[in-house]
Amino acid sequence: MVTAIIAAGGKGTRMGADINKIFLSLGTMEIISRTISAFENCPRIDETVAVTAENDLPLLRNVLKKYGFKKLAAIVAGGSTRAESVRNGLNAASGDIVLIHDGARPLITEDEILRVIDDCEKYGAAALGVKCKDTLKKSDADGFIETTLDRETTYQIQTPQAFYRRDILRAHSLPGSESATDDCALAERAGIKIKITEGSYENIKLTTPSDIIIGEEILRRRTQNADRSGL
């Protein structure tokens, strides 16, 4: 059984919005609804669990109710940190394999979901990632360039990140988990090897107003391509 945990916390600060950015629209749907829809429509996903800030629970329930998502098993309150929120989602999940995904990444595709599940089953853990396009530098404490990272072996890790539930729960139980910025960081500390599944540069996290503009264009192009293929 495979569960998708949708981490839908966060604020609208960098969006310049006064509500959680997941409730903003992308095309004809809210960002969070489009994200959950991608997992709802994937044949390998058995259930989804949405996690959001406690004060956003009523709005999230109302927003999602109108879509009648059959795989949506639970909507649970998050915690004071991302790690705590994900743990709450893990505790509500039934799957042996869990996919942890950012609620603000609505452009994830079925193919990407299927491939990260396959790699998790094959290697024990997997995460979508794309090679860095820009040259990355490591700085010292004073903001001066210290060294150049090898672009050929440097990746931007996205979500979903897939694990066996027992393994990622163990990783979450280790000291220092609250400071982790993603679940791969926790898995690394626990000694879990994570396969990088080739992702897409279109699987962006919508964080700023310019991201919404880019997301709308990606969505428009995908719709056009789908219309052409249906002719």
Could you please describe the fold and organization of this structure?
- The protein has seven helices and eleven strands.
- The protein is α/β, with parallel strands linked by helices and 231 residues long.
- The protein has one domain: Alpha-Beta Complex (Spore Coat Polysaccharide Biosynthesis Protein SpsA, Chain A).
- It has a seven-stranded mixed sheet with strand order 5-4-1-6-10-7-11, sandwiched between helices. A two-stranded antiparallel sheet has the order 2-3. Strands 8-9 form a two-stranded antiparallel ribbon.
- Strand 4, helix 2 and strand 5 form a beta-alpha-beta unit.
- Helix 5 packs across helix 6.
- The longest helix is centred in the C-terminal third of the chain and has 21 residues.
- The model has no long low-confidence stretch (mean pLDDT 93).
- It comes from Candidatus Ornithomonoglobus intestinigallinarum.
- InterPro entries: IspD, IspD/TarI, IspD/TarI_cytidylyltransf_bact, ISPD_synthase_CS, Nucleotide-diphossugar_trans.
- Catalyzes the formation of 4-diphosphocytidyl-2-C-methyl-D-erythritol from CTP and 2-C-methyl-D-erythritol 4-phosphate (MEP).
- Keywords: Isoprene biosynthesis, Nucleotidyltransferase, Transferase.
- One of its GO terms (biological process) is isopentenyl diphosphate biosynthetic process, methylerythritol 4-phosphate pathway.
Strand content: 15-25%
Structural class, judged by helices and strands? alpha/beta
Helix content percent band: 25-40%
* Sheet with most strands: 7 strands, mixed
Total helical elements: 7
CATH class, please?
A: Alpha Beta
Mean pLDDT figure: 93
Radius of gyration: 18 Å
CATH topology: Spore Coat Polysaccharide Biosynthesis Protein SpsA, Chain A
Instruction: Report how far apart the termini are.
Output: 36 Å
In CATH, the architecture is: Alpha-Beta Complex
Relevant CATH superfamily: Spore Coat Polysaccharide Biosynthesis Protein SpsA, Chain A
Number of domains: 1
Oligomer: single chain
Strand order of the largest sheet: 5-4-1-6-10-7-11
Q: Which geometry do the CA atoms define?
A: globular
- Uncertain spans, ≥5 residues at pLDDT below 50? none
Function: Catalyzes the formation of 4-diphosphocytidyl-2-C-methyl-D-erythritol from CTP and 2-C-methyl-D-erythritol 4-phosphate (MEP).
InterPro entries: IspD, IspD/TarI, IspD/TarI_cytidylyltransf_bact, ISPD_synthase_CS, Nucleotide-diphossugar_trans
Catalytic activity: 2-C-methyl-D-erythritol 4-phosphate + CTP + H(+) = 4-CDP-2-C-methyl-D-erythritol + diphosphate
Protein name: 2-C-methyl-D-erythritol 4-phosphate cytidylyltransferase
